[in-house]
């Protein structure tokens, strides 16, 4: 099993293992994130945010502005889901890492976006073999604030 998948064990089910729930959802374990993990989020957030001007579409920028996603801490999926639910009927659910395709697409079809509940280590800032919370939340979730994209992603599921 990939070493990168080991982090899920302190935030919920052991990453890479079949969780107890058939839909592979787990608790985000937000209160278990360490100061180091929040610092990694901050580093990634600030670095990627500097790259957005002139590259990110207006819809992405609007989603970032309107969601509780900031540099200081890993976002709480419950808070993200509250805003998304009001705007487009979506919610963010925690998963231990990669999930089977049929599980992933079933979640999308039901307006649930699966997001890894772990974050990469500081020495993995530039590359990680599987999507972590930064990839999923910063990279995908802002677009779910746009009703057209939200509907498309659901149809894709």
What does it look like?
Residues 1-14 have low confidence and may be disordered. The chain is built from six helices and two strands, in the order αααβαβαα. The protein is 41% helix and 6% strand.
Name its key features.
single chain; 157 residues; mainly alpha; Phenylalanine Hydroxylase; two-stranded parallel sheet; disordered N terminus
Summarize the structure.
It is built from 6 helices and 2 strands; from the N terminus they run αααβαβαα. The protein is mainly alpha-helical and 157 residues long.
Detail the topology: elements first, then pairings.
Layout: H1 35-51, H2 58-66, H3 77-88, E1 91-95, H4 101-109, E2 112-116, H5 133-139, H6 147-156
List unreliable stretches of 5+ residues.
1-14
Summarize the amount of helix as a percent range. Answer: 40-55%
Strand order of the largest sheet: 1-2
> What assembly state would you assign to the polypeptide chains in this entry?
single chain
**Number of extended strands:** 2
Order of helices and strands: HHHEHEHH
State the name of the first-level CATH class: Mainly Alpha
Instruction: Provide the CATH topology.
Output: Phenylalanine Hydroxylase
**CATH superfamily grouping:** Aromatic amino acid hydroxylase
Overall structural class, as computed from helix and strand content, comes to: mainly alpha
CATH architecture: Orthogonal Bundle
Distance between the termini: 27 Å
> Average pLDDT value?
91
Number of H/I helices: 6
**How would a crystallographer describe the biggest sheet?**
2 strands, parallel
The amount of beta strand, in percent, is 5-15%
Describe the global form. globular
Number of discrete domains: 1
